[in-house]
């Protein structure tokens, strides 16, 4: 059996507790999600922390599944307003992240942090830039790598990384959907490239992924998001995989969330077992 590490999985997402838009639709099944992942050859998973509260929840999960789960801690660009809205102020928010990192050996990366100009309705550019910058200090202090996010930033992300490249050892730009040129720029900064189903939507995406040097490539599911769908250019290539493997990676008894049965997967909810 092939063995995998899922470098980015959002196990704190309410979907794994059966919650959709704050409504309980079905019973939570996280234990079965973990079991399916192990059966499909997943050896380790890194749970993504997207803000302070999420980071705390991610760390708690690593305690529950000790030795199998690890986590990141940081603040996603779309959540960066939380620095300013924190009751004790931005410095206290940063210190709380710092403490969470320092006190938990299961934290293996700083992030998810970066820039996202596709969703400025959640957080403006100025705020994103300001609080992306301070998170390089967390990487420098801890010596941990960075789990990075970049969406449609017109070179701002690259410029920020280039300016602070000496602050961190390693880093991965996860869920990469950029151009061949963008990929090469990041490789030249000695970064890794993380891909998932969203990285494989178009024929152009596939050409970019094929060009990523093998020793710079990392894989993730980014579940419950970023599955491979029939409309994606990558979907046709699934036919080349052996049936016994596909039965592990894409569980056939998938049901819509409204018709959920314990032991089944949820339609369109990406799981770590799909890493293969």
TrEMBL record:
The keyword Metal-binding applies. The keyword Translocase does not apply. InterPro entries: DNase_TatD-rel_CS, Metal_Hydrolase, TatD-like, TatD-type_Hydrolase. Gene3D superfamilies: Metal-dependent hydrolases. Coiled coil: none annotated. Belongs to the metallo-dependent hydrolases superfamily. TatD-type hydrolase family. This is Mg-dependent DNase.
């Amino acid at each position: 059996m092939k063995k995998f590490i899922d470098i980015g999985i959002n196990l704190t997402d309410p979907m794994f507790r059966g919650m959709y838009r704050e409504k309980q639709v079905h019973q939570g099944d996280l234990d079965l999600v973990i079991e399916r992942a192990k059966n499909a050859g997943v050896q380790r998973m890194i749970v993504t922390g997207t803000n302070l509260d999420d980071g705390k929840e991610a760390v708690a999960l690593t305690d529950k599944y000790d030795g199998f789960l690890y986590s990141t801690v940081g603040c996603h660009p779309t959540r960066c307003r939380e620095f300013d809205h924190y009751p004790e102020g931005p410095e206290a928010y940063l210190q709380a992240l710092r403490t969470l990192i320092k006190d938990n050996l299961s934290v293996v990366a700083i992030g998810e942090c970066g820039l996202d100009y596709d969703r400025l309705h959640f957080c403006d550019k100025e705020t994103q830039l300001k609080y992306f910058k301070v998170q390089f200090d967390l990487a420098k202090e801890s010596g941990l790598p960075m789990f990075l996010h970049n969406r449609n930033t017109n070179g701002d992300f690259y410029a920020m990384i280039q300016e602070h490249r000496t602050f961190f050892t390693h880093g991965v730009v996860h869920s990469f959907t950029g151009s061949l040129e963008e990929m090469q720029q990041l490789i030249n900064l000695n970064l890794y490239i993380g891909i998932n189903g969203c990285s494989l939507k178009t024929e152009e995406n596939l050409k970019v992924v094929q060009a990523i040097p093998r020793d710079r490539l990392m894989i993730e599911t980014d579940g419950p998001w970023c599955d491979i769908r029939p409309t994606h250019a990558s979907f046709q290539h699934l036919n080349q995989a052996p049936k016994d493997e596909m039965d592990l990676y894409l569980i056939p008894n998938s049901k819509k969330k409204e018709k959920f049965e314990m032991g089944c997967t949820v339609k369109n909810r990406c799981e770590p077992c799909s890493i293969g």
